[in-house]
Amino acid sequence: MTIKEILADCDLRMNKSIEKVRLDLVHLRAGKASIGLVEPIRVEMYGTEIPISQMATVATPDARTITITPWDKTALSAISKAIQKSELSLNPMSDGQMIRLVIPPLNEENRRELVKRVKKEIEEGKVALRNVRRDAIDHVKRLEKDDQDKISEDESHKAQEKIQELTDKHIKDMDHLFQLKEKEILEV
Question: Which domain holds residue 174?
């Protein structure tokens, strides 16, 4: 591998870490209706588990309501059961055509707990970034040590500085994600 390839791989892996954290944060209930809340829920139908989005139209008509309209009306009860079993703690209301989920406002204690959970997710993401940084730096050091003809000590140090710059940039992105989610959660 060349230094350019190591830097590109490092950047790609760091971007994937940020994207994973971003997706995990979408699934956290923040007091607002979001289609992302029901995306991870799988429904037992026809002997297999199917994501809700593959068997129904999911919409958010207002800030506190999610509607789920199954294409096959016989799936209403299975979808309701799956929602009740989920970690959302929501009570689905069915009118025979669609399911409504009313998202209750969060109380102050729940908001603080959610912020702690978000902070934990962000910290885990930062650890992943640091692991990627460590791997990339180890790669550069091995390149320098094994093939002294390929890269010099100066090139190795420059590459390590670029890796650190990438890490700093991605950690700022993680901090920005935290600030956005914290603002969303604490918004009354």
Answer: 3-27+107-186
Number of domains composing the chain: 2
CA quadruple 171, 175, 177, 178: dihedral sign: positive
Per-residue pLDDT tens over the stretch 19-51: 999 888 877 766 677 787 888 888 888 888 888
Q: Three-state SS for 47?
A: coil
Domain boundary among 102, 118, 149: 102
At 120, the pLDDT band (50, 70, 90 cuts) reads: very high
CA–CA–CA angle 37, 14, 33 (5° rounding): 15
The pLDDT assigned to 29 comes to 65
- What is the average per-residue pLDDT within 47-74? 88
Max CA separation in the chain (angstroms): 73
Question: Which are the contacts of 52, defined by CB distance < 8 A and separation ≥ 6?
Answer: 38, 39, 41, 42, 43, 58, 68, 79, 82
DSSP one-letter string for 145-172: HH-TTT--HHHHHHHHHHHHHHHHHHHH
Q: Is-contact 91 103, C-beta < 8 A?
A: no
What Cα–Cα distance (Å) separates residue 72 from each residue in 40, 51, 76? 20, 14, 8
This prediction's pTM: 0.71
Give me the residue label for tokens 């500085």.
Answer: 161
